[in-house]
Amino acid sequence: MKELQKRPPYAMIAILFVGAFIAFLNNTLLNVALPTIMTEFAVKPSVVQWLTTGYMLINGILIPASAFFVQKFTNRQLFTTAMIFFTAGTTLAIFAPEFWVLVLARMIQAVGSAMMMPLLMNVMLTAFPIERRGAAMGMFGLVMILAPAIGPTLSGWVIEHYEWRTLFEIILPFAIIVLLFSIFKLKNITPNNNIKLDVFSLILSSIGFGSLLYGFSTAGDKGWDSPIVYGTIIIGFIALILFVWRQLKLDEPMLDVRIYKYPMFALSSVISIVVSAAMFSGMILTPLYVQTIRGISPFHSGLLMLPGAIAMGIMSPITGKLFDKYGARVLAIIGLTITAIATYLMSNLELHSDYYYIMAIYTVRMFGMSMIMMPIMTNGLNQLPMKMNPHGTAMNNTLQQVSGAIGSAIFLTIMNAKMESSAEKLAADAAKAGNMPTTAEGLTQFKVDLGMKAMLEGINHTFFIATIVTLVALVLSLFVKRVIVTKES
User: Fold this and answer.
1) Dihedral angle, C-alpha 83, 88, 94, 97, nearest 10 °
2) What are phi and psi of 188, to 5 degrees?
3) Hey, what CATH topology would domain 1-196 get?
């Protein structure tokens, strides 16, 4: 282990990085293509959404179990198996004759990609000494952030020039090459334990996280008063309470919740949840404003968000090195201050705000966020003993998935509520002032204009709430302390 820490296996890590990059890229690649797929297979919006919902549910089920897989199997076995599933799913998607086959293909892909992030994070924590972890995790952040962020832009360009199957055809050669390299070149560096899987824990985890993800992700479409929405959320919470209770009773828990007795890890989890929710709000609301209110194409909408992704990608390794030198607290305070200011500016958008002005604010916002996530998460993981790293990474990745879904649902609900109240107020004000149109054509245009103004107020109000959420994270970051690691850790 000491030798590995002196000279990390860079060639092996490069193979893992490329595999993780295409898996993370795949996460957001289909979003822009959903309307095209909906038309081709003649399915409703609520049905086509299963291409993302199904993918997300598999992630929600498998990521909590990743702590067991990482400990039970070698990194070579796990990565090769993950790439086999991912490559098989990608191949099936290219030739999918029916919609249900495409959904199945996406879920098979998700089986592979769900293992990528926890596995890669554990390899990084094992391969690099603690004083160099920041730089190493910064490079990992480059993959985790940049890949899904460039997905919509690449997807928009492909959909404008080619058919949606081309998205999978682009990924397949890279997946095959990485799979072959993993079979012939990958070595084992992560320690293994002959532990047994507690099947009841896996069932409770699957029901708990799966139900929560499904309930919150469908709330925007079906509404909070839908029995399916609140029913699955209640079932999810009950299953998770039972899951936590069982983990505390087991000698070898599937996901050890005792990691929360370490204060910096607990604090890092809370900050990460808050920041993830705020980040997802921007990733949903910005394209909604640009495409719906400004009428800009999906490709140019993705292009608007690309500089922000590039800024995060460039900053991630730099942030990692700064973390090694100065710790997480300073970076988090600076990053959250920048993010809060940029988010507040996003809450003052107008009907005709300049395209490049929006691009600039969004880029600054993402620049601020590049200083937060990885330093906070790494600082928390540094406090855990080495044997608990798989549980820490599994918990972090699971909470990111869940908080993203919950944050998106809550922010969209806030936006819709504000839209409805604003539309009623604007209509009442127009009627009171005697400005209601008298012709059918004028009435149609009035409704369109009123809808646009109401949506703008809804988006601005939601960004303002996101600003407050970001300020909460900023206050929490003041309590972050740099972890001093002992040899026993």
Assistant:
1) -150
2) -100, 130
3) Growth Hormone; Chain: A; (1.20.1250)
Establish whether domains 1-196 and 263-489 are of one fold: yes
Query: How far are the Cα atoms of 174, 287, 292, 459 from residue 297, in angstroms, in the given order?
Result: 29, 10, 9, 19
Question: What DSSP state is assigned to residue 9?
Answer: -
Tokens 């303002």 belong to which residue? 464
State the helix-helix crossing angle for 99-127 and 34-41, rounded to 10 degrees. Answer: 150
pLDDT score for 488? 44
Task: Supply 376's token pair.
Answer: 């906070």
* Centroid of chain to Cα 347: 22
Structure confidence by residue, pLDDT tens digits, 299-327: 777 788 788 888 887 888 888 888 888 88
Say if pTM beats, i.e. exceeds, 0.85. Answer: no
Residue 4 has pLDDT above 50, yes or no: no
Query: What does the alpha-carbon distance between residue 200 and residue 202 come to, in Å, rounded to a whole number?
Result: 5
The tokens for 189 are 């560096």
Q: How far apart are CA 470 and CA 336, in angstroms?
A: 7
Label residue 453 exposed, middle or buried (CB < 10 Å: 0-12, 13-18, 19+).
middle
Q: Parse the chain into domains and list their residue ranges.
A: 1-196, 198-253, 263-489
Give me the pLDDT at residue 239, please. 93
Instruction: Say how far apart CA 91 and CA 87 lie, in whole Å.
Output: 6
Question: For 263-489, which CATH superfamily applies?
Answer: MFS general substrate transporter like domains (1.20.1250.20)
pLDDT reading at 220 higher than 70: no
CB-count burial class (<10 Å; 0-12, 13-18, 19+) for 289: buried
Report helix, strand or coil for 162: coil
CA–CA separation, 250 vs 381, rounded Å? 22
